[in-house]
């Protein structure tokens, strides 16, 4: 199941506190809500999205209704903050619910300034409670369930609403001798090593969990790192990785809503095939320089015979599925495809993956190549893949990269292996999705 609420996709949400009156502008500018997309779980045939099962909907003139607003109200109501009717309109009732949520979590209380990290926490908590079984596992409801999610992020014990079993004394067998009652002590157990059920397990890295931790740190810091507050370039890069991930998931979810005739499971299965066909190139991300790998990917892409627009749309969908499923190889393969199709801004994702070791070996020297190429393309006017129209983000990425390089020193050049061009076999066509435009 890869349904998940998708969060912030705006640089203002990523870099500063945004006023909620801007949130009422339109769906594209719902910065106050800091939410993009919705639950992946709607009907995939265009025009057949489920409608909320509510009564007569009261539309307040002058306040646009947005999908993001409906999702925010749904989560607030779920945790007992009573935002009122789920109509997508951010009015006084929703603002009041936002303030009650802020007060409960110890955030600055202002319903007109709801920072992105606060929404990220709210929506991730809703996903944990409803889709990951948090409510069922703990037996809690309302604000207590929200606190349980916070405790789980902080590594402390998670409270439970279920009755707790009372400790009992271990039973001891006693044989009584009528002449001299003496308890017979049980024989000592044979010595054995402590069992370890995960002795042979490979460590699993979860980007979703990492982003939860990043957002927790962002909350502790009082907001996202900006150019004015840039003292920890690693934290800034991690924040922007998580924001870019969220934006990519939102864009893919929008495209999934335009795919006719495929279920979620079928989409995920085809994306698995998509990633498998790029397995060699995904492996080589950690092995060779950026330039030869891009050249190799361009040859692979040309060999698919798929129209570039269709292949790009498919890669965006699979990028979203990869991030939603925590399938890092799927995400890496999708980003590589988009770069090969002439969208260098997606190279930023590959820099993040190489820097943090998600879906690739940690290679910070190679990460710098992908970061620099992507940022340079944006500085020269390339289309932004994440938070388009927000010019503050590119200077932040550049400044963070320069500080990281300064702290690490100049990386020694790594000899590039000769690329091996691997065209996609014609007998096994690259899966693509037909998107209704």
What would your notes on this structure say?
This protein has 437 residues and is mainly α. The chain has 17 helices and no strands. It has helices at residues 11-15, 20-23, 67-78, 92-105, 116-130, 134-138, 142-153, 207-221, 233-256, 264-277, 279-284, 290-303, 308-325, 328-340, 347-356, 364-379, 393-408. Helix 5 (116-130) packs across helix 7, helix 14 runs antiparallel to helix 15 (347-356) and helix 15 runs antiparallel to helix 16. The longest helix is centred in the middle third of the chain and has 24 residues, at 233-256. Mean pLDDT is 74; it is low at 1-58, 167-179 and 409-427.
Explain the layout of strands and helices:
Blueprint: H1 11-15, H2 20-23, H3 67-78, H4 92-105, H5 116-130, H6 134-138, H7 142-153, H8 207-221, H9 233-256, H10 264-277, H11 279-284, H12 290-303, H13 308-325, H14 328-340, H15 347-356, H16 364-379, H17 393-408
Assembly state here?
Answer: single chain
Termini separation: 27 Å
Which regions are unreliable across 5 or more consecutive residues at pLDDT < 50?
A: 1-58, 167-179, 409-427
Give helix and strand order, one letter per element, not per position.
HHHHHHHHHHHHHHHHH
Structural class: mainly alpha
Spatial shape: globular
What's the helical proportion of residues? Answer: 40-55%
Portion in strands: under 5%
Radius of gyration: 25 Å
Number of strands: 0
* Number of distinct helices: 17
